[in-house]
Design a protein that fits this description.
CATH topology: MetI-like fold
CATH architecture: Orthogonal Bundle
Helix content: 55-70%
Number of strands: 0
Low-confidence stretches: 1-20
Number of domains: 1
Largest sheet: none
CATH superfamily: MetI-like
Structural class: mainly alpha
Shape: globular
Radius of gyration: 28 Å
Distance between the termini: 34 Å
Mean pLDDT: 85
CATH class: Mainly Alpha
Length: 379
């Protein structure tokens, strides 16, 4: 007792001397100012960040134009924005054009319908990211919500006017292409990855290899062109598929090929003993794959899967080349009006903020899933 007491007494002055140093100050000193060189670099970067940050704040907030007057005909008078060009942002263009950017050519009086669809998508994403909602009922909720989204967008029932999909645009198109594309591409990717690793079915393996290598060997733009121009040539006479569905098929095939290689990487990284243990238990091929092999393989490639999802979500902007007005296209079209030409920076900042919000949410969900699934592997 006396030895331990004397030891604690001897350490007390050391703890007392370090007590005034806060945790934040200790982090700054150890990470940013540990050496003279580190201190100089940290101060230089801090100066640049503060200077650029203040300049941006002055442009985006202090000297910004938030609204412009309108003439008797209701046309915007953008002279005040042009007078402040280069000094302050003209956020009035966002206030004037945000509905077109978000919903495209969808009838103005009916834009509450795509707005509800966007909220439904966000709600589905948020619920799917929470572990407490991971039940069988979630799949049913997704199915019902997607049917409801399609019904709201098309209309033609219960007094809702019919709106053809060539009038759709903006954020709903981006979310529809990304959501249905990934939903169709993921099971295709799993089957293609399993088929490429198949040893007993060489024909299936060769077919999967050809599909993956062919799709990965051409740009997405070429697939969209083929889906828009060449695909209708192979259909029977009198059969027509609208361009939105053709673009969706192209996205499914494209994403499926890339995801298949990600899934195959997870399958190859799995120790062979897992499969042998399943065989020893007498499990069949599909039981072994669905219950043991595939869950562990997918857990190991969560970062790569989410990275592919993020890239695919941003690639939806390429549908511009076949005449589909996604979010990026409506943003670019919004500044074609002569009155607003020259104010594209504000529009592109809005688009960047929207894309960043969705992509950052996916990355945080990925980090949370990694933390959740790695609990059992910690030592």
């Amino acid at each position: 007792m006396s030895a331990s007491h004397s030891s604690s007494v001897e350490r007390a002055p050391t703890l007392a001397l370090g007590a005034p140093l806060s945790r934040a100050a200790f982090w700054l000193r150890s990470r940013l100012f540990a050496t003279p060189v580190s201190a100089v670099v940290s101060l230089a970067l801090l100066y640049l960040l503060l200077r650029w940050g203040w300049d941006f704040f002055g442009w985006a907030v202090l000297h910004a134009i938030w609204q412009v007057p309108h003439d008797a005909a209701g046309l915007p008078q953008t002279g005040v924005c042009r007078a402040a060009e280069g000094v302050g942002a003209c956020w009035a263009v966002v206030a004037e054009k945000y509905r077109f950017i978000l919903f495209g050519f969808y009838p103005y009086a009916q834009q509450w319908r795509p707005a509800i669809c966007v909220l439904l998508f966000i709600g589905l994403y948020a619920a799917s990211a929470q572990q407490r909602f991971w039940r069988r009922e979630l799949a049913l909720i997704w199915a019902v919500a997607l049917v409801l989204i399609g019904a709201l967008m098309w209309g033609g029932f219960a007094g809702l006017p019919l709106v053809a999909d060539d009038q759709w645009g903006g954020l709903p198109i981006t979310l529809i292409l990304a959501t249905f594309g990934l939903a169709g591409a993921f099971p295709l990717a799993v089957l293609a990855a399993l088929g490429r690793r198949s040893r007993g079915m060489p024909a299936v393996r060769m077919l999967c290899v050809c599909y993956i290598e062919l799709i990965r060997g051409v740009p997405l733009i070429s697939l969209l062109f083929m889906a828009s121009v060449m695909f209708p040539l192979f259909l029977p006479a009198g059969v027509d598929i609208d361009k939105l569905l053709r673009a969706q098929i192209a996205f499914v095939l494209f994403a499926g090929a890339y995801l298949a290689e990600v899934v195959r990487a997870g399958l190859q990284a799995l120790p062979k003993g897992q499969s042998e243990a399943a065989d020893a238990l007498g499990l069949g091929y599909w039981q072994k794959t669905m219950l043991i092999v595939l869950p562990q393989a997918l857990r190991q490639v969560i970062p790569m899967l989410v990275n592919t999802f993020i890239g695919f979500f941003k690639d939806t902007s390429l549908v511009l080349i076949i005449g589909i007005f996604d979010l990026t296209t409506t943003g670019r079209t919004a500044i074609d009006e002569p009155a607003w030409q020259g104010f594209g920076n504000e529009i592109y900042l809005l688009l960047a903020a929207i894309y960043f919000t969705f992509c950052f949410a996916m990355s945080r969900t990925s980090a949370r899933l990694e933390h959740l699934f790695s609990r059992g592997q910690r030592r």
